[in-house]
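Hello forum,

I keep getting stuck at the same step: I have a sequence, I want structure tokens, and every attempt I make locally crashes halfway through. Rather than fight my setup again tonight, could one of you with a working pipeline run this one for me? It's a single chain of 124 residues.
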Amino acid sequence: MITDKALINFLSAYDEQVMTNAMKLRELLLKKLPGIIEEIDLPARMIGYSYGRKYTELICVIIPSKKGLKLGFNRGTELPDPDHLLEGTGKISRYVVIKEKPQISSVALKNLIGSALTAYKKRI
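Reply #2:
Ran it on my machine without issues. Output:
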């Protein structure tokens, strides 16, 4: 688990809204993904959430940028998305663009995170 200080240090390169939303999103992920391992990937400029060291054990990533914030899902192409939150054209991954704080506490996003955890449990 990374410290709040390390996370704030990492996120300080971004504007206040990105930082605030990333912290709120982190709080949600830690709640919805019990026992998850959280790591900052400095070269990739993202925060990863996984249940191990292998890429197949990666559930999702927080991707901050100057333009905003994304929540990326490993194997997002396999997730049910009835609310059409997922974007992207990659063969494996998909992401949700986080535009405002209320979106983070939405039922749709919580369900998507739950689906990612369920999908992970099925494949291990």
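The first helix runs from residue 4 to 11. If your local run keeps crashing, start a new thread with the error log.
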